[in-house]
């Protein structure tokens, strides 16, 4: 029987890799949604329409269905349909669409007047993106990604159904199925602690950024 801490480490490893891949892809998609929309600094209705349809199509799909549906694709890309690699692959794809919408919404909080002032000073679109839009939205983005990390922890627990390791699978396999509530509650307690720590760190970092 694996130990609680070992499974916690596996869960954090799955979440970290999923955040790396899904977080980068989600940032790119969300940024494209923001800048290519009507009135955006890189207005491109076709690009916006395509990305918007993709996000709206995949984001609402329940993760338990999504992770099962992408198993064949996971076999092609990572060589297996179950296990930690397949879980990271599935979570990364799901997270990219989820985070894309978070990024878009947080970028919408940027004051249009600041963007217009940068335009008036002769700044080009890409310079505005890197020196105005992203820095101005950094605080809300940190809070958004904090929320995303917690959602990834939830996804990693659900992904245990396809053979993924971690606290979710540990609680079900060695707690629920073996009628051992101590194991189940221990895993639950540790997940709650991890979530509280992540949320606190995200709040502190966002607060420091917003005070600048």
């Amino acid at each position: 029987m694996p130990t609680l801490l070992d499974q916690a480490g596996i869960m954090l490893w799955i979440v970290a890799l999923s955040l790396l891949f899904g977080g980068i892809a989600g940032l790119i998609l969300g940024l494209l949604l923001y800048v290519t929309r009507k009135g955006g600094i890189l207005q491109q209705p076709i690009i916006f329409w395509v990305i918007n349809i993709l996000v709206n199509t995949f984001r609402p799909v329940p993760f338990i269905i999504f992770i099962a549906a992408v198993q064949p694709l996971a076999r092609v890309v990572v060589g297996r349909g179950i296990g930690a690699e397949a879980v990271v692959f599935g979570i990364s794809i799901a997270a990219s669409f989820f985070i894309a919408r978070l990024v878009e919404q947080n970028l919408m909080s940027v004051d249009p007047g600041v963007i217009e002032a940068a335009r008036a000073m002769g700044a080009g679109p890409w310079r505005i993106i890197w020196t105005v839009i992203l820095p101005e939205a950094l605080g809300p983005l940190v809070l958004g990604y904090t929320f995303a990390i917690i959602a990834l922890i939830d996804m990693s627990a659900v992904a245990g159904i396809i053979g993924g390791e971690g606290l979710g699978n540990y609680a079900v396999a060695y707690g629920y199925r073996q009628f051992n509530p101590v194991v189940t509650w221990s895993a639950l307690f540790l997940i709650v602690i991890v979530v509280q720590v992540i949320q606190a760190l995200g709040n502190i970092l966002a607060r420091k950024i917003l005070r600048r």
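The radius of gyration is 20 Å. The longest helix spans residues 4-36.
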